[in-house]
Amino acid sequence: MARDPERLHGSHVVSRQELEAAFAEDPDDDGDGRRFRLRLRHAVVLVVLLVLVAGGIGVAFAIQKGYLSIPQAESSPQKTSVCPSGTFTPLKPSAVKVNVFNATDRRGLAGNVAAQLKARKFVVGAVTNRDLSLNTPVAVISGKDGHAAALTVQRQLQGADYYQDGRSDGTVDVILFQGFAAVTPTAKVVQGPGKLLCPRELAASTPAK
User: Cα–Cα distance between 95 and 175 in angstroms, integer?
Assistant: First the structure.
């Protein structure tokens, strides 16, 4: 039986003529059409690149001007805090600005404490939640220029520990944790000069002047 030269094992063998016909250029597609499509692709790529560059410049400008911030992990004041050794005289509550933060899952805790401090004539600033963990029921935080203000606030909160950070103003932060019990009753607030109460591990370290 004679073999069909155009079939191999039952499959059609593509001939040279068929390949040339398959890849032959479209006679209706002139050089101008191909050049137009090529220029169109180049234009699309150029527009995409320009958009990416403009977006990068816009983001950099926003970060530089402070319109956009990059989230960073919040550090604990306990790592760099020191315990002041001096004796401080409490200020009038109206001279103390305090921010109150809720680091617990208890809804409305910061607002409740802030309202009580405001009723005692403290100047209340920020009142919101804060994602932070410290081994204390209440943290009272200030810079070195806010020691007297911090003592004034600390005496209002049961079980509060003092931490110092690097801020340059006299504001005080209060951070409420799961162990927080209550605001100290007005009649039991200690009066007169005194020392800031620090966590045990800080109180045992080298005191700050």
Answer: 20
